[in-house]
Design brief:
Number of strands: 8
Helix content: 25-40%
Radius of gyration: 18 Å
Structural class: alpha+beta
Strand order of the largest sheet: 5-4-3-6-7-1-2-8
Strand content: 15-25%
CATH topology: Structural Genomics Hypothetical 15.5 Kd Protein In mrcA-pckA Intergenic Region, Chain A
CATH architecture: Roll
Length: 209
């Protein structure tokens, strides 16, 4: 099967103004790597569990951690075992991606274009985007906009506490395309490091048992 370049628009649901990225990926990308691509492009920290929803199919992490949190993994397709091309072959054009089941960051993914693959180009790549990703663990969309309201008012009673929690600064309009693509060139290394950390955690838990 011939690979193509897939142009996808990723929009954080209920963000106003919209927080979005336009990415270009190889159609042979696994959903696991697509997860990392979205994380890096949006600016998330790769800290939490995730899941893709394609029609009635669920694609995500298949391990004991999912069961421990009560989400169940028996009917989930392993994101490392399915590629984007398999979904596109069934003519699905919209995919939902949820990150962090506590905060519930839902992203709508729209397949915008299917293009010839340029063998000389690097994939994945972020083409453009707008606005900064919310801080991790800020309470989902409601918590995020409450945070913005607080830091926009220096006289707010929670201003200093919130700014300290944010590490001193947060610009909701910031988006650095060049830096984003620099991190995307390191996606394989980031995935390998994440896998090594996960294996170390498993070994520590086994030692405790």
């Amino acid at each position: 099967m011939k690979n193509n370049a897939i142009q996808i628009k990723v929009v954080l649901k209920n963000s106003k103004p919209p927080i979005w990225r336009r990415i270009l990926v190889n159609s042979s990308i696994t959903f696991e790597e697509l997860h990392y691509t979205i994380q890096i492009a949006m600016g998330w920290g790769i800290f939490h569990l995730y899941e893709f929803a394609v029609d009635d199919y669920r694609i995500g992490v298949v391990n004991d951690e999912m069961e421990d949190y009560g989400f169940g993994s028996s009917d989930i397709i392993d994101s490392a075992d399915i590629i984007l091309e398999e979904v596109l072959a069934k003519d699905y054009k919209k995919i939902v991606y949820e990150y962090d089941f506590g905060d519930g960051w839902v992203h709508n993914l729209e397949i915008e274009k299917i293009l010839p693959l340029d063998e000389k180009s690097y994939y994945p790549v972020c083409l453009t985007g707008s606005r900064n990703c919310p801080p991790e663990d800020c309470g989902g969309i409601p918590g995020f906009y409450n945070l913005l309201e607080i830091i926009d008012n220096k006289w707010h009673p929670e201003y200093e506490e919130m700014m300290e929690w944010l590490g001193g600064s947060y610009d909701p309009s910031e988006f650095d395309l060049e830096e984003t693509n620099l991190f995307l060139t390191e996606i394989k290394e980031i995935m390998d490091e994440d896998e090594d950390e996960y294996e170390e955690e498993d070994e520590d838990e086994e030692d405790e048992i």
